[in-house]
Amino acid sequence: MLLLTPEEMGRADRLAAESGIDSYGLMIRAGHAVSAAFLRLYPAALRADVLCGPGNNGGDGYIAAEALKQAGVEVALFHLGDPENLKGDARRAFQACSIDGKPVEDYRPAAGAVIIDALFGAGLQRPLSDALCMLISQVNEAAEPVIAVDLPSGISGLTGKVQGAAFSAAHTVTFMRAKPGHFLLPGREHCGRLDVFDIGIPQRILEEAGGGHHLNGPDLFASALPALTASSHKFRRGHLGVFSGGPSASGAARLSATAGLRTGAGLVTLAVPPNAAMVVANQVTAVMLKAVPDVAALDEWLEDKRLSAFVLGPGFGVGEKARAFVSALASRPLVLDADGISSFADEPDALFALLSGADPHCVLTPHEGEFARLFPDIAADDNIGKPEKARRAAERANAIVLYKGADTVIAAPDGRIAINANAPPWLATAGSGDVLAGIIGGLLAQGTPAFEAACAGAWLHGQAAKRAGEGLTAEDLPNHLPPLSGVS
User: Which UniProt key words apply to this protein (predicted)?
Assistant: First the structure.
């Protein structure tokens, strides 16, 4: 589940060399992995067109080209810049390649060929030249299959952003560990099928080189999920409080409450304005009701120490009441979503002050617009990607930040980052975020730590959508949540 940024992968390469591992041997294995992918995926291809860049990615390409020639494949080789200027292992790979190359500017895609993109890989952080953008556009328009080495050229391995233009690969072959750019949008859409090959760098070196980036999945949170025992009863399974808006705005909170119950909270109570009680009572059964008209009533309710977590925001309404309720709840495990976030748009520092000085126990779940309202300067920084934005926001807020989207990112103030990539596109439907808030709240209520609850919530949300299938509505999601006992 560990992801390596391009900088971290470079550090891993250096550490491997310092430990005595032959770096050129690693390049040979990488190039052979590319050639093997070509032979496996496209046995009937008429030709391999190998585009080699001016660095180690190009070195992988030269190795792959020579291996394909030795396997009897017709190979056409094209190089960016003068290959005589190559250094180190890339130069050795070029010298070991017996194929005469041509300048990449001369390349034109041809029918029946498979293109191996070994121009830049994951480390690119600058826009491509106009000439390369035109070449990439021609290749993409020709729709001939592309195998990308490490990452499609033009995609940042750190942020997933397109640097002017990028190949649309059918397959991407990377080495040892995937990079954030493989899963962040729009990079993910350019990678096609991703294969990760082990070329021989030990796990201990990867862990020493790596930081806090992970692909979200059960390895991150399964050990923190609640487990039922013979002595379990409803109060031991936690009591979740979910706050509702008025009579015409209770649907979002009801979705959250149902999701919290389905996730395993022993009791769930909807806290409603008195004028919404009868409307909500006609819509719920296992979820309990509590009239909480104001902060005084909330303070009285909070004297019940069996209440273990809360969800505030879905359909609640934006304004002073929301801010006052958050102030009363700030020391308790809390999912702050939607209107709860927007209520602090004009004074985000007031929210951050409420959450400061304690271990992070609040989960903020902003979408793009809400994130920009709460963290305007971070959102406007085009020099950093979504993971770094989420990390900085989490540090500032002293909270877990679940930055929603098709490439949801979860970040903790201590630097842990998880990129969630299991959500199908049909999850983008009204009310799905309310369900997500309820799932996380249900886990918090059962004692799951905030970062793990947020990671598990995002992953379970995606799995429920896959199980429900295309055409789902938010009401379908809670009924398709996988059982926690089966998550591993």
Answer: ATP-binding, Isomerase, Lyase, Metal-binding, Multifunctional enzyme, NAD, NADP, Nucleotide-binding, Potassium
Q: Nearest-CA neighbor of 419 among 379, 462, 378, 383?
A: 462
> Is 254 among the annotated ligand-binding positions?
no
Burial classification of residue 133, based on how many CB atoms lie within 10 Å of its CB (0-12 exposed, 13-18 middle, 19 or more buried):
middle
Question: Dihedral through CA 421, CA 426, CA 431, CA 436, nearest 10?
Answer: -20
Do the annotations mark residue 405 as ligand-binding? yes
Residue 433, annotated ligand binder?
yes
CATH number of the structural domain 6-211: 3.40.50.10260
Residue spans per domain, the chain: 6-211, 218-486
* pLDDT tens, position by position, 4-58: 999 999 999 999 999 999 999 999 999 999 999 999 999 999 899 999 999 999 9
Q: How would residue 125 be classed by pLDDT, with cut points 50, 70 and 90?
A: confident
The annotation status of 434 as a binding-site residue, yes or no, is yes
The response to whether 128 counts as a known ligand-binding position is: no
User: Considering Cα of 217, then 218, then 219, then 220, what sign does the dihedral take?
Assistant: positive
In terms of Cα–Cα distance, which of 204, 103, 198, 216 is closest to 452?
216
Q: Tell me, what's the pLDDT at 219? A: 95
Q: Is 407 annotated as a binding residue?
A: yes
For residue 127, say whether it is annotated as part of any ligand binding site: yes
Write down the pLDDT at residue 392.
98
Q: Any binding-site annotation on 315?
A: yes
Residue 19, marked binder: no
The CATH number, out of the four listed (3.30.200.20, 1.10.10.10, 3.60.40.10, 3.40.1190.20), of the domain defined by the range 218-486: 3.40.1190.20
pLDDT at site 448: 97
Residue 230 pLDDT: 58
